Amino acid sequence: MEWVQNRFTFPLSFLEVTILISATSAWFWNFLKISTFYLGYFPQDLLRQSISSDKICPFALDSEVDGLYVRDFTHHDLPGELLAAKIATFLDFAETPEIILKFIVDQMKISHLFNEVLISPRFLAVFFMIIFAIILIDYFIVGRISGEFIEDYQKLIEIEREETETMQTFSRKFFGEKVLVLGFVISQNFIDISHFTPNLKDFSSFVNSKFSSASITGDSTIFAIWYCFVFFVFYVTQLILMRFVLTLKNGQIKHRNLFSNPPIICTSFLLLILFTFSSFIYGISLMAFNFLNTKYAAILIIDAFQCWIRCAYTLLRVTLIISTSKITTDSEILLKCGNSQRKLEICKIFYEKIAHLLYILQYSLYMVVGITITQKFASILFFRRLAKNIRMFFETKFEEDLDLDKLI
Fold first, then answer.
1. How far apart are CA 19 and CA 380, in angstroms?
2. Which of 237, 245, 281, 299 is the 20 to 30 A CA-CA neighbour of 322?
3. How far apart are CA 323 and CA 334, in angstroms?
4. Among candidate residues 370, 366, 16, the one with its CA nearest the CA of residue 177
């Protein structure tokens, strides 16, 4: 019973409530700005003055089944009369279950990602290339690091099991979050009738129509390909760091020269390549302002900088491990490295501060884009992750006593 209560109760902190209320209010305000309103709710004298004015009429008519509605395109700050008319129209719509249901379905629909991402040849080619590269790196390089230092086969199996579980959890969280981003932040709902046949005779016609639309390259396709490269960098750096740390904690590496281990040499070279690659994609993201929406380009820049700072920290951490030619125990690592370990701890805290700050900017940007561009209410769901990173940003402290486990 206690597990059920912990599983299905979600107490919100003051920070989370504040972010949720602010984001919901911003979404509703933006929704009112772009929504239509019934002509009868707007004061007739003000409407007559607006139409007869020598300025451009700020209204555009939008015919509906049960009346005449007006869509306002110019008012950024809604006057009181216009706001009252839109709220009254919204309350009328709220009384119709069919309209509310259609609105909810449109807000939650992400089926268009099937055409733009899952059957896109460009995305599939990049995705399987990344997966193939990760398998090769894991099997031929990272997976062989512990072979020379861990003689107990059972302990090696436990390390691999722990590593597999951690990386599977990381992959699920990463792809789960990015699917939400693609569905509720990046892509907008649309129906292109040129790619849909109204009367399909058989299943083969349906399949052919779906695959014919896969040639479309939309925003979701571009960002899905981008997230494949981001996943590759984060996955490989996490994999390398875990394997090094677990080998140090469980291996018998007395009087072993780490430089003499070919997998470690290859791993060091791989980290240099990843660092160069992350610098390259960061440069590409800076050029995104020339051909993408400013907010979309900012998302790419934050992702690229996260890759760069992650590679830099992993390279520093691994370099410190292999810089000592002969290592005996974990405590001797701390004793020998001394000041270097203290510098690494400072770098770790500095890295965590930057990482949490980037996540704060990232989740804030997700919510802003979802509210202002795609008008998806579900983008507000990132409020808990935003609040979590805000708390962790201010809770990071400097440790007086060095501990190898805290430097992971």
1. 9
2. 281
3. 13
4. 366
Tokens 């992702």 belong to which residue?
303
pLDDT in tens, 334-357: 455 555 566 677 778 888 899 999
Of the candidates 246, 252, 250, 247, the one whose C-alpha atom is nearest the C-alpha of residue 328 is 252
Beta bridge partners of 69: 38, 62
Q: Which residues pair with residue 36 across a beta bridge? A: 71
Buried b (16+ CB within 10 A) or exposed e, 141-154: bbebbbebbbeeee
More reliable by pLDDT, 340 or 400: 340
- Mean pLDDT over residues 47-68, rounded? 60
Nearest to 137 by CA among 149, 127, 145: 145
Q: Which of 318, 165, 170 is nearest to 232 (CA)?
A: 170
Q: What is the pLDDT of residues 113-152, one digit of tens each?
A: 777 788 888 889 999 999 999 999 988 888 787 766 777 7
| Domain range annotation of the chain | 2-108, 114-407
- Are 367 and 23 in contact by the 8 Å Cβ rule? The answer is yes
Query: Two tokens at 267?
Result: 């791993």
Measured CA to CA, the distance from residue 164 to residue 150 in angstroms comes to 18
pLDDT digits (tens, 9 = 90+) for 159-189: 888 888 999 999 999 999 999 898 888 877 5
**One-letter amino acid for residue 139 of the chain:** Y
Instruction: Give residue 338's region: left, alpha or beta (phi > 0; psi -120 to 50).
Output: left
Q: What is the DSSP letter of 77?
A: S
Average pLDDT over residues 312-328: 72
Q: Is the pLDDT score of 279 beyond 60? A: yes
How far is Cα of residue 397 from the mean position of the Cα atoms in its chain? Answer: 26
DSSP states of 104-116 as a string? HHHHH--TTHIII
- What tokens were used for 376? 């998806």
Give the separation between CA 271 and CA 316, rounded to whole angstroms: 10
Q: Chain-centre distance of CA 59, in angstroms?
A: 38
CA nearest 230: which of 291, 162, 121, 309? 309
Number of neighbouring beta carbons within 10 Å of residue 80: 7
Q: Of 95-109, 229-243, 382-396, which gets the smallest average pLDDT?
A: 95-109
| DSSP code of residue 287 | G
* Phi, psi of 37, deg, nearest 5: -145, 155
CA separation for the pair 130, 175 (Å, rounded)? 14
User: How many residues appear in the chain?
Assistant: 408
Kindly report whether the global pTM for this prediction surpasses the value 0.70: yes
